[in-house]
Amino acid sequence: MHTLRSLGAGRRLAFSPTGKLLASDACLKRDPQTFICVQPAVILWDPYKGVEVKRISNVHSSNVTDLAFLSDELLVTGAMADDTIRVWQVATGQLVRFFYGVDGVMEFEISPNKKFLVVLQNGIPILKVWDVSSGRELGSLFKDFVGLSFSPNGQFLAGSEGPDRQQNTLSLQIWRVKENVKDWQVARTLDIPVPNAINHFLGDLSFSPDGKILAIYIWNAAGREESIQLWYVGDLQ
């Protein structure tokens, strides 16, 4: 259909719920000596016409590390360097909400009902959970996850961990999501056997639309033997 011109080293994409907008991160200006992005932005595109419709500049003090739509009207962005997650009004490009107390945003997930915002922090084995509507921190899970995915019904959250050196496996936990974060519990643990697991890592996760299959990306530290495993989890209660 179209090829959209990326501005800088953009790596994140997100469609709005209706599919009318596509958001991509961009870098409008870099420090000439350090090559660090000093003017990050988000570009909003019309995916059907292949044209830029809006540009939100200076969204953070450094590269955007993740982005997602709350609705066609609200866009969420996060950055590792300034320790914030921010919510933007799409029509005006105005900042409408901050989420504070995030130490290095690597990745975040928003629950399907738009209630919970769950954040992975760089180098910190704590998963923080916020209330989306109020921006209030609800609690934490003391887990060293590297990938996250909510089930389509929002009742479960999958998180991938690092290798178990003794068992030669990679570990993944599926948590049962409740209204109170203190009541979240592990519904299932998947121990994924991998030869020489110490050199392998779990990456991105994704539930199928019916929630019965979990796709798990596995990569090798040497850049070889990358694979995707599909696990049946349809019997989760």
TrEMBL record:
The keyword Transmembrane helix does not apply. Coiled coil: none annotated. Keywords: WD repeat. It comes from the Bacteria. The keyword Thylakoid does not apply. This is WD-40 repeat-containing protein. WD repeats lie at residues 57-98.
